[in-house]
Design brief:
The complex is a heterodimer. Chain A folds into 2 domains: 17-66; 71-320, MetI-like (MetI-like fold, Orthogonal Bundle), CATH 1.10.3720. Helix content of chain A is 77%, strand content 0%. By secondary structure, chain A is mostly helical. The longest helix of chain A has 33 residues, at 288-320. Chain B is an alpha/beta fold. Chain B has 2 domains: 55-269, Rossmann fold (3-Layer(aba) Sandwich), CATH 3.40.50; 274-339, CBS domain Like (Alpha-Beta Complex), CATH 3.90.1280. Chain B has 16 helices and 14 strands. The chains are: A mainly alpha, B alpha/beta. Chain A binds chain B through residues 219, 221-222, 224-232, 235, 240, 243-244, 319-322, and chain B through 79, 81, 104-110, 112-114, 116-118, 120-124, 133-134, 137, 165, 167, 181, 185, 191.
């Protein structure tokens, strides 16, 4: 169950010899008349690839263990949380989730819907996988918020920081996910930690962006008033800027959760247990129903998270207006 | 005028230039470069030029001007929301520009508070929490904070709205919150940046009455920014008129209306009801010893004095000073003449002369 069975898990030995045969042989050759682009010859190109790979491999060999142990607290958190979700009686969890849902949204029908969704998931035999997915989503979201909000604040305070971060965030959001799975796996092997890191990298940009945006949109006059009454930087930040940016920040958290959920299936490719595993199994074995059920469970989780965070965001905003 | 008294606000030789490198263009500014030229040839905006202003304690100084004249910029120099390019700002003798960040914060918490044009209330705090904001910054204990805020809520007439959010209130009520928030800190100095400009005319005059009423009992030093001359005259002990970042005239309402410094100000004063603004004391003639006629106090308006003069047989009345001693005379002619501005007299005289010339 730990890995999809192919190849030894940590630091794949064959990793360096990739693109044997120089991927598309036709690219530099003259098979098509339009393609006589002045390409580097295959030997040079391969040398470039190899030297980058070698450098990264040396890095991961030297520092991989140290970096991995730095993530131990997160692993501990994830394992504990997963343990609680898997060992608590199912009805306690259903009630707790419905309670959180009601506390955040104050909507009875939504809370009932959540209960029903989780009951169906349980009846269809996906309880364990759902709990595992819930655990990783929860921890990944916590990490994303813990990283994202301070970064967003830093971005909002300095135009330089914003200019520096924006292209990085753009790359994080457009780079195909599989591409940054490679270095993460090379560094950490397969398992929970690389999965968590991949999910966080993929999911953190919205909360950074929207924290930055939310703070920048705070009315300048209100900030001036805070200044005029002698508020310092911290009081201004925590007393005025963050509370006023909260609806936007919540929108960012919401998107972050959605993106984390969408990573579940891909994360299962590097050994993260949960709803993604059966989906992956279903894809490789053409089990349509299995894929459909587990996919539907992901959708169910997504709807629950989405509605709860959104209606919480809306509630804070409504409190102030109209 | 009140050169260097220790109390009050002193602004001396103040310059403010906005742009990337204000210091580099200061020599040009001192040479008297025009605002337009500075912007077009050097890319800097002249905000304020050589402002000298002394505000005596416990008085209301109005700063008046059209938008873009620099009035809001000027008032923000007093609590250093804006730093000057050059010049001096003193509050009760203390050099504002020498204060470090901590001292400045202290000063803003305890000594100078501010009311804003668009209220600038905290939308996520209730009326009560808005008003006690400054008190929280003063680190007052919660019960005392609430008690003091409650007192101000009552004083500005917002009982029953303690737990409302600003969005639930009308503009006039929001500005009452703004005013209470500023007054609650017990600061001596109150800066009011177009505080009533965003309100409806009726509400605005209510608010003016409230302010004057409060000032009557509190005696704050108030700097009140407005673009409305009528408001300036009603509220201001002194009125400084700003144009293109320069003070064109600084005087009391009588100076402004009776002796406008230039045609720019004369234009401003045209629409003013002179009969109600001009005081008898400012237009009286020397006392005629033989006059006994009806008496009128020096601080009543021309409008109020007219019936007195009309009723008197010689068309004249004696003007009494604050102690009730006769100090001058006004005649019906003087009173009526005061109703028209100098300029209008000139124009009328020219018209009559012209007609005479045509006839001849």
């Amino acid at each position: 169950m730990e890995s999809p069975g192919r190849g030894p898990p940590p630091r794949r030995p064959g990793g360096g010899g990739q693109c044997e045969g120089g991927q598309k042989p036709g690219a530099g050759g003259g098979e098509y008349r339009g393609l006589n682009f002045p390409t580097l010859d295959i030997a040079t190109l391969r040398a470039v690839h190899k030297s980058i790979d070698a450098a990264y491999k040396t890095f991961s060999r030297n520092y991989g263990d140290a970096i991995e142990s730095a993530f131990d607290p997160l692993l501990w958190l994830l394992i504990k949380f997963e343990w609680i979700l898997l060992n608590a009686p199912w009805w306690v969890i259903v009630l707790a989730i419905a309670g959180i849902c009601y506390a955040a949204s104050r909507r009875v029908r939504l809370s009932l819907g959540v209960i029903i969704a989780f009951l169906i998931i349980g009846v269809l035999g996906m309880w364990e996988d759902t709990m595992r997915t819930l655990a990783i989503i929860f921890v990944a979201t916590l990490i994303a918020i813990a990283i994202g909000i301070p970064l967003g604040i830093a971005m909002s305070r300095s135009n330089r920081m914003q200019a520096f971060m924006t292209p990085i965030l753009d790359v994080m959001q457009t780079m195909p996910i599989f591409v940054y799975l490679i270095p993460v796996v090379m560094l950490f092997g397969l398992g929970k930690i690389p999965g968590l890191i991949a999910v966080v990298i993929y999911a953190v940009p919205p909360v950074i962006r929207l924290t930055n945006l939310g703070i920048r949109l705070v009315d300048q006059e209100v900030l001036e008033a805070a200044d005029a009454f002698g508020a310092g930087t911290w009081r201004r930040l925590f007393g005025v800027q963050l509370p006023l940016a909260l609806p936007n920040i919540m929108a960012g958290v919401n998107q972050t959760i959605m993106m984390a959920l969408s990573m579940v299936v891909i994360a299962s490719m590097i050994g993260v247990k949960g709803l993604g595993m059966p989906v992956l199994q279903a894809v490789t074995n053409q089990y349509f129903a299995l894929g459909l059920f587990n996919g539907a469970a992901v959708v169910g989780l997504a709807i629950v998270f989405d509605r709860v965070t959104q209606s919480y965001g809306r509630r804070i905003q409504e409190q102030r207006q109209s | 005028m009140t050169a260097q008294t220790h109390e009050g606000i002193h602004v001396g030789r103040l310059y403010k230039v906005f742009g990337t490198d204000p210091a580099s263009v200061m020599p040009l500014v001192h040479e008297g470069i025009g605002k337009q030229e500075l912007l077009e040839d050097h890319g800097h905006v002249l905000g304020l030029r050589d402002i000298n202003l002394d505000v005596s304690p416990r008085s209301i100084q109005v700063v008046m001007g059209l938008s873009g004249s620099g009035k809001s910029t000027l008032v923000r120099h007093i609590n250093r929301l804006i730093d000057p390019t050059e010049g001096e700002v003193r509050v009760d003798g203390e050099d504002m520009l020498a204060l470090d960040a901590a001292a400045l914060k202290q000063l803003r918490r305890y000594k100078i508070s501010m009311v804003f044009q668009r209220f600038a209330l905290f939308p996520h705090r209730t009326v009560m929490d808005n008003i006690s904001y400054g008190l929280a910054l003063q680190r007052l204990a919660k019960p005392e904070r609430l008690e003091r805020a409650a007192r101000w809520i009552e004083r500005v007439g917002l009982q029953g709205y303690e737990n409302s959010y600003p969005h639930h209130l009308s503009g006039g009520m929001q500005q009452r919150v703004g005013l209470a928030r500023a007054l609650a800190t017990d600061a001596d100095i109150l800066l009011m940046d177009e505080a009533f400009s965003a309100l409806d005319p009726l509400i605005r005059s209510d608010m003016r009455a409230l302010l004057l009423d409060l000032q009557h009992e509190l005696h704050k030093t108030i700097v009140f920014v407005t673009h409305d001359l009528e408001e300036a005259i009603e509220i201001g002990d002194r009125i400084a008129i700003l144009r293109d970042g320069e003070v064109v005239q600084n005087g009391d309402s009588q100076d402004i209306v009776l002796r406008p410094a230039d045609s720019y100000i004369a234009d401003f004063t045209k629409s003013i009801n002179r009969g109600r603004v001009i005081r008898v004391g400012s237009i009286m003639e020397p006392l005629k010893p033989d006059l006994s006629g009806p008496d009128c106090p020096h601080d009543i308006s021309v409008e109020e004095a007219l019936p007195l003069a009309v009723a008197s047989p010689g068309g004249e009345a004696r003007v009494l000073n604050g102690e009730g001693e006769p100090v001058g005379t006004v005649s019906l002619g003087t009173l009526v003449r005061a109703l028209g501005s100098e300029r209008e007299h000139d124009r009328a005289a020219a018209g009559i002369a012209g007609q005479a010339a045509e006839a001849g």
